[in-house]
């Protein structure tokens, strides 16, 4: 009997492998450099400072900008951390009437942009304490707290759920009360996740321009925008922006250090935490407290926007020179769709490359995340400088102009929000068993085949969660869209800004409601992704 033998097919030679690796290096390094370039040109501007500019700023506005920025930052981060963590523990560890519904409603304020809630509460407070009293840093901080706490809430809730019943059993063995168990066991274990949510809040406050402008709060980010428009000098705006670049670098380093211990809060056993059932007054308070938060953060704005929307419709003020709500909605969805696709595509390439090429790959990924800590005006300044330089080269065809184009706008948005996609994909891949990739390699699959057939399909919930968060961020983004959009290409955010700049609250209602509707759809997708195993991304 003759045994049949199989001759292996031709294998790809070493030169082919080296060529493939070289292409991967060139594409990945080029993408990372392009993303980092707008931030780098801002950082480089400090090498040739303008002493007269800094002297003039220090004599006039800079000390006040720094003081207001620090005051707002500390107040909002502490407030959001306390509120988000408390609500997360209440919903996770206790059972009370309406708990499940309230648990999801507490995420809804994420769909309300700060500048939308800002003009609603500015008008509401002005009717009670007068316009001058309403325009204060403390009301601005309160508005930002109730619109940004969901970041901490999502992270803290995921961490508390992951702890399971083990930590509560440990607390009982130690004879701790419920409050002591939370303070001494559950809270320390969830601290890395809470810090990650707090880092997102910090970046949002640091980069906010629309809300602080409504309340006449002079932050450094707002100062960059004022210097650009006031002096017409990109160099002056870039130099002032270096203070925010330094802060962003510190934030990225701190966030990475804190994430090193972020895994020890995961569930050690298969037993989930059993919520403690509340009764009587405690149950009533547990239901009422979060309900008040949702009402303040989303209920009041929605009611007032609805009333203003009816008023605007009766007055025929539901359109601008550029077009009606469908025109602006279409422009918004087009920009959001392109930006999300670019961020997910580039982010996937960077993360997969980093997992295969060690320290240098991780450096590329971390550098690409710097844009998320930059204020919109800072990214816009850097993007304009880079795009203008590319326009002057032979790399761009003659008739094409990147500055003021849709390509330039999507590029700037990609720089600003790439970190959301990168961190979401990283979180998803961290949950994937290493054996899956090892098995594919054993079967002789190439890296691209492994990525397409094994790694990316396994992180589908994480991709959906990242896409949802990206959509929410891009739809709300104002400064970059305002400064880099093509002529006549107005989004919903630009419409709101134009109306609120003239205190036309009723005219800003329709686009605000449309933005909230888009954000609500994205939040729904996010919640579905989280239910299917995706992690909260940071």
List the main descriptive attributes of the protein structure presented here.
single chain, 538 residues, mainly alpha, MetI-like fold, 2 strands
Structural account:
The chain is an all-alpha fold and 538 residues long. The protein has a single domain, classed as Orthogonal Bundle (MetI-like fold), CATH 1.10.3720. A two-stranded parallel ribbon has the order 1-2. It is globular and about 70 Å long. It starts with 13 loop residues before the first helix and ends in a 7-residue tail after the last helix. The N terminus is likely disordered.
Protein topology:
Elements: H1 14-44, H2 51-59, H3 62-93, E1 94-95, H4 99-105, H5 114-129, H6 131-134, H7 137-163, H8 166-173, H9 178-207, H10 210-214, H11 220-231, H12 234-259, E2 276-277, H13 280-315, H14 325-356, H15 358-368, H16 376-391, H17 406-431, H18 434-442, H19 447-458, H20 460-476, H21 479-484, H22 492-501, H23 505-531
Parallel strand pairs: 1-2
Q: Care to count the β-strands? A: 2
Category from helices, strands and their pairing: mainly alpha
Distance between the termini: 64 Å
Order of helices and strands: HHHEHHHHHHHHHEHHHHHHHHHHH
CATH architecture: Orthogonal Bundle
Question: Fraction of residues in helices?
Answer: over 70%
CATH class category: Mainly Alpha
- Low-confidence segments, given as residue ranges, are 1-13, 261-269
* Number of discrete helical segments: 23
Q: Using the coordinates shown, work out and report the CATH topology.
A: MetI-like fold
Domain count? 1
Mean pLDDT: 79
Coarse morphology: globular
Measured by DSSP, the beta-strand proportion falls in under 5%
* Sheet having the most strands: 2 strands, parallel
| The CATH superfamily title | MetI-like
Quaternary structure state of the chains depicted: single chain
Write out the strand line-up for the largest beta sheet, numbering strands in chain order. Answer: 1-2
Computed CA radius of gyration, to the nearest angstrom: 25 Å
């Amino acid at each position: 009997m003759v045994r049949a033998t199989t001759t292996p097919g031709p294998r790809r030679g070493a030169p082919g492998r080296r060529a493939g690796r070289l292409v991967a290096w060139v594409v990945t390094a080029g993408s990372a450099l392009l993303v980092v370039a707008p931030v780098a040109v801002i950082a480089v501007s400090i090498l040739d400072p303008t002493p007269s500019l800094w002297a003039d700023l220090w004599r006039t506005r800079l000390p006040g900008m720094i003081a207001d920025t620090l005051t707002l930052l500390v107040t909002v981060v502490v407030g959001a951390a306390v509120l988000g963590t408390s609500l997360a523990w209440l919903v996770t560890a206790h059972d009370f009437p309406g708990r499940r519904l309230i648990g999801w409603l507490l995420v809804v304020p994420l769909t309300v942009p700060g500048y939308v809630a800002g003009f609603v509460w500015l008008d509401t407070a002005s009717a009670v304490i007068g316009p001058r009293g309403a325009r204060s840093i403390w009301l601005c901080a309160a508005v930002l707290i109730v619109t940004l706490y969901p970041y901490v809430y999502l992270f803290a809730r995921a961490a508390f759920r992951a702890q399971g019943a083990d930590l509560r059993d440990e607390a009982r063995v130690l004879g701790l009360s419920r409050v002591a168990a939370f303070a001494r066991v559950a809270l320390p274990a969830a601290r890395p996740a809470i810090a990650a949510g707090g880092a997102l809040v910090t970046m949002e406050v640091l980069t906010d321009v629309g809300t602080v402008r409504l309340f006449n709060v002079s932050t450094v980010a707002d100062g960059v925008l004022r210097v650009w428009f006031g002096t017409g000098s990109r160099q002056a705006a870039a130099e002032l922006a270096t203070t925010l670049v330094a802060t962003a670098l510190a934030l990225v380093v701190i966030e990475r250090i804190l994430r090193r211990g972020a895994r020890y809060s995961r569930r050690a056993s298969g037993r989930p935490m059993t919520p403690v059932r509340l009764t009587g007054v405690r149950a009533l308070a547990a239901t009422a407290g979060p309900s008040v938060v949702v009402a303040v953060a989303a209920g009041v704005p929605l009611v007032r926007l609805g009333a203003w929307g009816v008023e605007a419709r009766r007055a025929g003020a539901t359109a601008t020179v550029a077009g009606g709500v469908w025109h602006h909605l279409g422009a918004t969805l087009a920009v959001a769709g392109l930006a999300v696709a670019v961020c997910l595509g580039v982010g996937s390439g960077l993360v997969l490359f980093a997992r295969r090429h060690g320290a240098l790959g991780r450096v590329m990924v971390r550098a690409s995340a710097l844009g998320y800590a930059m204020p919109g005006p800072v990214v816009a300044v850097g993007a304009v400088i880079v795009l203008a330089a590319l326009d002057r080269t032979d790399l761009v065809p003659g008739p094409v102009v990147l500055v003021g184009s849709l390509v330039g706008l999507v590029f700037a948005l990609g720089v600003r929000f790439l970190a959301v996609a990168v961190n979401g994909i990283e979180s998803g891949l961290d949950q994937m068993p290493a054996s899956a990739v090892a098995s594919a390699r054993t079967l002789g699959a190439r890296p691209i085949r492994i990525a397409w057939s094994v790694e990316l399909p396994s992180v589908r919930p994480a991709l959906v969660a990242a896409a949802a968060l990206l959509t929410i961020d891009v739809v709300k983004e104002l400064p970059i869209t305002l400064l880099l959009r093509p002529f006549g290409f107005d989004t919903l955010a630009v419409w709101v800004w134009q109306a609120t700049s003239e205190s036309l609250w009723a005219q800003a209602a329709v686009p605000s409601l449309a933005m909230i509707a888009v954000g609500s759809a994205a939040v729904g997708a996010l919640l579905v992704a989280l239910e299917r195993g995706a992690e909260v991304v940071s």
